[in-house]
Amino acid sequence: MATGGGSYKFYDEMRRRLDVDVTREDEMDCLIAGLDFFITEIPEEVFCYSEQDPMSFAEARPNIYPYLMVNIGSGVSMVKVTGPGQFERIGGSSLGGGTLWGLLSLLTDAKSYDDMLEMADRGDNTKVDMLVGDIYGGEYSRIGLKSSTIASSFGKVFKQVRRGQAATSVDEELPQEKEEERPAHDKFADFRGEDISRSLLYAISNNIGQIAYLQARFHGLEHIYFGGSYICGHPITMHTLSYAINFWSQGEKTAYFLRHEGYLGAVGAFLKHQPSAWRDEN
Long-range pairs for 43-49 at CB < 8 Å and ≥24 separation? Predict the structure, then answer.
């Protein structure tokens, strides 16, 4: 059994309870090995996402290097891969899945990540986000912005909260509460958890997509692969990442996903403990 991360105490406990040998492997080594394997060996593994065609499989490439891997878990790591076992972390972000899970745990009644994704599916971000159309009354074609483009994530919240406070103080003829004295959950009473979930999912995903594009452009990397527990095969997440890459690259780059993106590290660890001829034979 191979694993990455964790303490030696954990490994000793695993050996004792399961009576198995536990070998520690480097997490990033395993992720890259697994990704290389899926890209090169598994038919109909890599795909592009769009609302019209949710799973458009990419054609196999004779030479997969170099490429950018964007691994999204609690945080985000962006890794430039130039050959088998040859890679370097070139960037990342602390705004990842952990940010989404943490904030939605505070702002909604969701009890699990699945709850959060289901709420986002039912949500309407325009109730929370400020759009270009809200500011200009329509599109801003001169700089290429549609009226539906998000101008400010959560941009409508501040105005609505302040407007609600003012209305309450006038109607009830009571002095307006100081901001710090008002419970946080009361401030969001007029916003549905579903709308908040969708808005925050868009904000985090758009941010990751933009940073990924900038890293790919700076390092001259044509192909961008997304993986990690954050994606979870979720359509809205994949759509937003795809949209961000397409928008910022003006259609020159594409976001690639994998059917088995949640197993990259496990498969990589497995491969590292197989004989060198195993892949050819199997």
Answer: 44/259, 45/258, 45/259, 45/260, 46/225, 46/256, 46/257, 46/258, 47/256, 47/257, 47/258, 47/259, 48/242, 48/254, 48/255, 48/256, 48/257, 49/235, 49/238, 49/239, 49/242, 49/255, 49/257
pLDDT tens, residue by residue, 251-273 = 999 999 999 988 899 899 988 88
In whole angstroms, what is the distance from residue 67 CA to residue 157 CA? 39
Query: How large is the average pLDDT for residues 48-77?
Result: 92
CATH H-level, domain 47-125+192-257: superfamily = ATPase, nucleotide binding domain (3.30.420.40)
Q: Would the pTM count as exceeding 0.85?
A: no
Are 27 and 4 spatial neighbours (Cβ–Cβ below 8 Å)?
yes
- 180/226 Cα distance (integer angstroms): 40
pLDDT in tens, 159-172: 776 665 555 554 55
Q: What is the CATH number of domain 1-42+260-282?
A: 3.30.420.40
